[in-house]
């Protein structure tokens, strides 16, 4: 997903399974989305349909 400023947002990794061993705080932090690093952004932008 592209933001208005052109950054690429992504969902946090490690959200699939085995969450029982993680602390509540760690799971809460994973809810937040983050941004793709600038190094990878160019490659990913090429793969996006309207990027």
Fold topology:
Layout lengths: L8 E2 L13 H7 L3 E2 L2 H10 L4
Antiparallel strand pairs: 1-2
Describe the structure.
The chain has 51 residues and is mostly helical. It is built from 2 helices and 2 strands; from the N terminus they run E-H-E-H. It has one domain. Strands 1-2 form a two-stranded antiparallel ribbon. The model has no long low-confidence stretch (mean pLDDT 89).
Which stretches are poorly predicted, pLDDT < 50 over at least 5 residues? none
| Straight-line N-to-C gap | 9 Å
Structural class: mainly alpha
Radius of gyration: 14 Å
Strand order of the largest sheet: 1-2
Percentage of residues assigned to helices? 25-40%
Domain module count? 1
Output mean pLDDT: 89
Query: Got a strand count?
Result: 2
Number of helices: 2
What is the approximate shape? elongated
How large is the share of residues in beta strands? 5-15%
Q: H/E order of the elements?
A: EHEH
Major sheet summary line: 2 strands, antiparallel
Overview features:
single chain; 51 residues; two-stranded antiparallel sheet; 2 helices; elongated
Sum this structure up briefly:
The protein has two helices and two strands. It has helices at 24-30, 38-47; strands spanning 9-10, 34-35.
């Amino acid at each position: 997903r592209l933001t208005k400023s052109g950054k690429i947002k992504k969902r946090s990794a490690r959200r699939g399974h085995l969450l029982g061993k993680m602390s509540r705080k760690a799971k809460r932090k994973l809810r937040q989305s983050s941004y793709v690093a600038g190094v990878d952004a160019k490659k990913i932008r090429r793969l996006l349909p309207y990027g």
